[in-house]
Amino acid sequence: MKTFKTLFFLLMLLSSYTLRAAEPLTVDLWPGAPAVKSSDAADTARVYIFLPAAHATGRAILICPGGGYVGLAMEHEGTMWAQFYNSMGIAAIVLKYRMPHGNKNVPISDAEQAMRLIRANAAAWNINPDDIGIMGSSAGGHLASTVATHAKDDVRPNFQILFYPVITMDPEFTHMGSHDNFLGQKAKKKDEVEYSNDLQVSRTTPRALILLSDDDGLVVPANGVNYYFALYKHDIPASLMVYPTGGHGWGMSTDFAFHLEMLMNVRAWLNSF
């Protein structure tokens, strides 16, 4: 009987996000001149806003897809999450941020502007401005954790969810493609320290869920593990989920062997506060 109930729950969970999400509201972040100009004038920052059709809880999540700061995995690390979160009554806002090309302030300004946009429209979108999280995968996890550790109060998220994140800019442990695209190939040591986010955790850093695979050969697990340890040392509530296999970049892919377990972990963590 217990096995049947577990199977039934898994099937219900699977059906809750396989339905296609409603068409999103699309908003350009910088309708005028952007606060920080990019070297690629054609690269436009925007958000895709998926609001729950019913039973909105007031919670929202800004989603930052990964891509090594050279491109974006907009589907399996972005828009494919919308229905899962909407089914929980959570608004999902997917960020298309601009590529840095060595100017770190470009994607950071986009993520911070997206947080401002969400809070400015909180009443209209039925969102609680004090319950807005940020989520990121891989390099998007670095961007999300950068906002979580560096942003001022008006744009700081209330929680963070990080999938196989790039955390450090230390050349010994970082993903060098993300490092070079974010800071430039001739990065200064002080910038490597400043944007090694495990070194920037404070007692105001928001709670976190970190998920990764033990066999990740692209972004070494030490990134996420060291971030968890830094949060722990600062008494920040944090959970770390390490799956035995899966490699890197699984996101919402059903090919990931622990896909359903991962969804249950995310759901349970969000329901814990």
Largest sheet: 8 strands, mixed
Q: How much is the average pLDDT?
A: 94
Shape: globular
The helix content, as a percent range, equals 25-40%
- Could you tell me the number of beta strands? 8
Number of helices: 8
Which structural class is indicated by helix and strand composition?
Answer: alpha/beta
Q: In which order are the strands of the major sheet placed? A: 1-2-4-3-5-6-7-8
Give a brief description.
The chain has about 270 residues and is of the alpha/beta class. It contains eight helices and eight strands. The longest helix has 17 residues, at about 1-20.
Describe the protein's architecture and organization.
- With 273 residues, the protein is an alpha/beta fold.
- The protein has helices spanning 2-18, 82-86, 105-120, 139-150, 176-183, 189-194, 222-233, 259-270; strands spanning 25-28, 46-50, 60-64, 91-96, 132-137, 159-163, 207-213, 238-243.
- An eight-stranded mixed beta sheet has the order 1-2-4-3-5-6-7-8, with helices on both faces.
- Helix 3 (105-120) crosses helix 4.
- The longest helix is centred in the N-terminal third of the chain and has 17 residues, at 2-18.
